[in-house]
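ENTRY TYPE: paired fold submission
RECORD: A
CONTENT: sequence, then structure tokens
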Amino acid sequence: MRLAVILPMCLAASALWAEGPEMHIVEDPTLLPPEVQETRDALIAVARSGDIEGLGDIIEAQGSTPTVSFGLPDDPVAWLAEASGDPEGYEILAILQNALEMPAAVLGNEAEGQSYAWPYLSQMDPNELTPAQQVDAYRLVPVEDLQGFRDFGGWIGWRVFIGPDGEWQALVAGD
């Protein structure tokens, strides 16, 4: 069920730039809804702690499991630790923190419900980034990865989604 909700959201979001609507970007995290700010701050705090198991506390508190892979692993924290380039999960925590410290992209509208995506770059055409946006992209991925995104036609790096109610919905990479 979760995949049925998250996958279309991710696909629609990654194609947002192709459809032409203007991107709504929130650069100041204090302008996010309080519930979204709270979850973002909690995720950053876990990342800064260096303890990937802290993500499990967030999952337990919210009562729902975020999508971390389109294969829907049973234990998302263990899956993220395995996906990390190191056994402790520090790389994934660094990626999570770096993404969440970027501006957020607002998806949807208030009437239909909004969702928030980090980094904002994940909702943009990588072939049309401004010089400042390219610098932001290189803060997150190496040159080769960004070129791969351009060749693919969209951001396929790690991205984070938080719902309007503060639910951590996803931390995913790939198409």
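RECORD: B
CONTENT: sequence, then structure tokens
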Amino acid sequence: MQRLKEIQTSLRKLSNNVTQLQENISDLQAALPAVANFVSEVERDVKKWQFKTQPRLNRIQIILDVLKIDSDEQKK
């Protein structure tokens, strides 16, 4: 009889856990569109930042190349 009560208790806990899991899955699915929207906004901002900084990075690289050439010439 005691074993039967333990099994019943375990089944109730399992049922409660499954119910909680279903609720959490529903919450996650409800939050998914907002997360996807946030990710796309971040990706857009990163692309915008890269677009704006790329010309500066190119100029910096040119300057570094010129300085390296000058440095190499001075060593000779």
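NOTES ON RECORD B: The mean pLDDT is 91. The radius of gyration is 31 Å.
STATUS: closed
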